[in-house]
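Reminder to self: tokens first, then the designed residues, so the page reads top to bottom the way the pipeline ran.
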């Protein structure tokens, strides 16, 4: 047999292999560092996928925004350069305004209810909008807890927040919340925050307990207002291009594995939130003002809802959902 025939036969055989037999190492990007719960669950997802696919599927994770910020990762998934990402719901609000409802200020006042919102039919409906708006498929939600305010200077009243430059996660609904109480929002990706604080480029930040602990922001912003002012969600995304190349069976396998680790992530945040606050109470130099409610910010909830309720019906729908909890 000559070489041409061998190559032709081998190529034909490769095409004849059923899709289910192909091996894939999925590239998954995320903005958080290896110590974060998301990254731990992505590592566990890799194990689950390898086990359930008999070694055909695995995950190669790119943490800490190695591939760029979340907007860049979303573009990479659209072109197919990146297969998967765990991205904040905040980033997705640029493309899917309905996702802004998940960032409604004081939508929930505790992390258990945040978990119930993320597991609701209403929240799942918002995921259905992703393929058309982003070229990605949203498999499930998880979270990184509730958000708090941290500042360099002590804050006794809402007027003390006036004019302060606050780092926020880039997202229009979050930006408007900060503008509404008179602050100057400074959108910035997670990996850039510590240096910006150390160099006094910002006066404060909007952050969750997990990252406050991981990055020790209290070293430069020791005043923590425990506001729980919005929940901070995550969506496990797959590039629509990568998804289209998979068989129905493999999609189900991946969706179930992803759901398992989204659920574990949510459960871990719910279980660990109080312990994280306890740990922060022991952090050197920190000053915590506990139980700061929506009343601290005056009528901000009404003003925010009036503006964002015009853009998405999910503001009213999620408020109604939570009222029924
Ligand atoms: C942030 O941008 O603040 C953020 C992003 C992902 C996880 C935690 C925080």
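Designed residues (325 positions):
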């Amino acid at each position: 047999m000559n070489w041409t025939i061998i190559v032709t036969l081998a190529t034909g055989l490769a095409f004849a292999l059923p899709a289910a037999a192909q091996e894939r190492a999925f590239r998954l990007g995320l903005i958080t560092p290896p110590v974060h719960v998301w990254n731990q669950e992505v590592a566990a997802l890799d194990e689950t996928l390898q086990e359930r696919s008999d070694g055909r599927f695995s995950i190669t994770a790119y943490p800490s925004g190695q591939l760029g910020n979340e907007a860049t990762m979303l573009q990479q998934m659209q072109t197919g350069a990146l297969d998967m990402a765990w991205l904040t719901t905040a980033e997705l609000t640029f493309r899917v305004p309905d996702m802004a409802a998940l960032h409604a200020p004081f939508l929930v006042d505790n992390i258990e209810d945040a978990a119930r919102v993320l597991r609701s039919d209403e929240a799942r409906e918002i995921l259905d909008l992703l393929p058309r708006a982003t070229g990605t498929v949203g498999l499930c939600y998880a979270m990184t807890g509730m958000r708090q305010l941290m500042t360099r200077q002590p804050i006794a009243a809402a007027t003390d927040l006036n004019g302060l430059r606050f780092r926020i996660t880039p997202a229009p609904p979050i930006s408007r919340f900060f503008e509404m109480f008179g602050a100057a929002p400074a959108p910035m990706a997670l990996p850039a925050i510590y240096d910006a604080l150390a160099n006094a480029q910002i006066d404060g930040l909007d952050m969750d307990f997990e990252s406050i602990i991981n990055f020790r922001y209290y070293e430069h912003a020791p005043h923590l207002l425990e506001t729980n002012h919005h929940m901070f969600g995550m969506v496990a995304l797959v590039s629509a291009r990568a998804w289209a190349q998979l068989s129905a069976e493999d999609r189900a396998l991946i969706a179930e594995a992803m759901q398992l680790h989204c659920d574990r992530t949510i459960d871990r945040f719910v279980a660990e939130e109080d312990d994280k606050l306890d740990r922060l109470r022991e952090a050197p130099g920190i000053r915590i003002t506990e139980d700061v409610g929506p009343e601290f910010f005056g009528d901000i909830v009404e003003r925010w809802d009036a503006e964002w309720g015009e853009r998405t019906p999910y503001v009213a729908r999620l408020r109604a959902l939570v009222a029924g909890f």
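The pocket of benzoic acid is lined by residues 31-32, 88, 144, 169, 190, 207-208, 211 (CB under 6 Å).
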